[in-house]
Amino acid sequence: MGMMAKIPQGFETRAERRSWYSRADAESLLDWLEDNGHRFVGMDVAQKQDDGNWTLLSDRLDLTRQTENFEAVRMGRVFLAEYDGDGRMFEPVWQDRAR
């Protein structure tokens, strides 16, 4: 991929923090990645604390060695389902992502 892939228009305004999204928005980003042929390589998850601060959880999805993008996106959906909960936000990561 030669071009840098920017987040689709409108997603930036829904981000809780820069590029962190609710489960529903993270799933929509996975759809966009798959539909546009961008290589999904992983996802981070954070938990909002009572004081308003965020804690990056050590549980993350690392798919940098996964060669089949369809399978990577499927695993991303499973990760979202398993780690979703109150105060959880997700940061999908893909190859050649531009901020």
Q: In words, what does this structure look like?
A:
The chain is an alpha+beta fold. The protein has a domain at 27-94. Helix content is 32%, strand content 25%. The chain is built from 3 helices and 3 strands. It has helices spanning 11-14, 23-35, 69-83, and strands at 40-48, 54-62, 88-94. It has a 3-stranded antiparallel sheet. A hairpin with a 5-residue loop joins strand 1 and strand 2. Helix 2 (23-35) packs antiparallel against helix 3. The chain is globular. The relative contact order is 0.28. The mean pLDDT is 85.
Estimated structural class: alpha+beta
Q: What is the global morphology?
A: globular
Number of strands: 3
Euclidean distance between termini CA atoms: 16 Å
**How large is the share of residues in beta strands?**
25-35%
CA radius of gyration:
13 Å
Number of distinct helices: 3
- Helix amount: 25-40%
Mean pLDDT: 85
- Low-confidence regions: none
Q: Please summarize the sheet with the most strands.
A: 3 strands, antiparallel
Order of strands side by side in the largest beta sheet?
A: 2-1-3
SSE topology string? HHEEHE
In summary, what is this structure?
With 99 residues, this protein is α+β, with helices and mostly antiparallel strands.
How is the topology of this model organized?
Layout lengths: L10 H4 L8 H13 L4 E9 L5 E9 L6 H15 L4 E7 L5
Antiparallel strand pairs: 1-2, 1-3
Helix pairs in contact: 2-3
Key words describing this protein structure:
3 helices, 3 strands, alpha+beta, single chain, about 100 residues
